[in-house]
Specification:
This protein is mainly α. It is built from four helices and two strands; from the N terminus they run ααββαα. A two-stranded antiparallel ribbon has the order 1-2. This is DNA-binding protein.
């Protein structure tokens, strides 16, 4: 997943996703392409499951 797909999957803005991907508990990117960093979709899904609704709540709060 690229950043925009991460944002969409997590239900947050692209700006919020840019902050989240730099957190130490977020999965490390698997590569950096010309479009930017990319993440393993399964790892992003697992992260989202661990964090639950708190992601969207943190953005609006």
């Amino acid at each position: 997943m690229a950043l925009s797909e991460v944002a969409h999957h997590l239900g947050v803005s692209r700006q919020r996703a840019a902050i989240l991907v730099d957190r130490p508990d977020f999965p490390a990117p698997i590569d950096t392409l010309t479009v930017g960093r990319i993440w393993d979709a399964a790892e992003v899904r697992a992260y989202a499951q661990r964090r639950g609704q708190r992601l969207a709540d943190e953005e609006s709060g």
